[in-house]
Design brief:
The protein is mainly alpha-helical and 280 residues long. Helix content is 82%, strand content 0%. It has one domain. It has ten helices and no strands. The protein starts with a helix and ends with a helix.
Length: 280
């Protein structure tokens, strides 16, 4: 059993570290590569949307069917899914309009930020405001990713404890989709601060929610982790990820790049996640 615990925790840690690995991509970004920013945000949205509808929500429904039967389980999954969306929307509404990263910004702010030159050299108040908005977007994304990485860490740990082979498959799938998520955190923060180390740090910390989830699962939740609880958790997380993708990642990506760039990132993100699930 002790060997299984160490193995399960190691898998979860490696999956979380993939987010930090994705953030290293930001080290190669130049301050004027806004197409890269749009592509990265679209890529992450594609991963999150695909895995929410194809993997997480069906798993949630399956768990809830086991807990409450075929007549009630799917309805509970549906309610939990939209509850996750509603929770995120309420939090979004509570953020002041001036500080809300989801509000449409003036076109002139975009034009200012798109100037050639080093990010750290931008001094105009409008540029500072846009950099602040990008920073908030990166932080919001980091928190959102940490929120859904936490239960993923629980799921990976518990699966590896029960079936090591299943745990490996889940960990690899999560690691693959954590890479573009790391990009989605680090790129906006890098564009906002011009600081590669800070971009890496925030992305890395969001990934560390995975092993944190494993620790909580081991010390507190493992004795009480039922099909019903896991189903509710996964359905709610799927709703949160879908809301973030449509309300924040995709609009932000569209504002910083051409439509084809965003769609290309979206489709590639879906393809990466889809192939990883089929191969595993």
């Amino acid at each position: 059993m002790e060997g299984n615990v160490l193995f399960a925790f190691t898998l979860t840690l490696l999956a979380g570290l993939a987010t930090g690995f994705g953030s290293i991509i930001a080290f190669f970004a130049r301050s004027n590569q806004y197409r890269f920013l749009a592509f990265g945000l679209g890529l992450s949205a594609g991963v999150m949307i695909y895995i929410s509808f194809v993997e997480i929500l069906p798993e949630a429904e399956e768990s809830l069917v086991l807990a409450w039967g075929e007549s009630i389980g799917p309805w509970v999954a549906l309610i939990a899914f939209f509850a996750g969306i509603a929770l995120t929307a309420v939090i979004d509404r509570l953020v002041p309009h001036a500080e809300n990263p989801h509000e449409v910004r003036p076109q002139e702010d975009l034009d200012v930020l798109r100037k050639e030159g080093d990010v750290e050299e931008l001094q105009d108040p409008k540029e500072d405001g846009e950099k602040s908005r990008l920073m908030r977007t990166g932080l919001f994304t980091a928190v959102a990713i940490a929120v859904h990485n936490f239960p993923e860490g629980i799921a990976t740990f518990v699966a590896a404890m029960v079936d090591p082979a299943l745990g490996v498959s889940i960990a690899i799938a999560i690691a693959i989709h954590n890479i573009p998520e790391g990009v989605s955190v680090s790129v906006p923060i890098y564009f906002a601060t011009g600081n590669r180390k800070k971009a890496f740090l925030y992305s890395f910390l969001s990934g560390m929610a995975e092993p944190a989830g494993a620790l909580i699962a081991y010390f507190l939740l493992l004795p009480f982790l039922t099909d019903a609880l896991m189903g509710l958790l996964f359905a709610g997380i799927a709703g949160i990820m879908v809301y973030i993708s449509f309300d924040e990642l995709l609009p932000m990506a569209r504002e910083y790049g051409e439509g084809h760039t965003v769609i290309t990132g979206l489709v590639i993100g879906m393809a990466i996640m889809g192939m990883s699930l089929l191969l595993l």
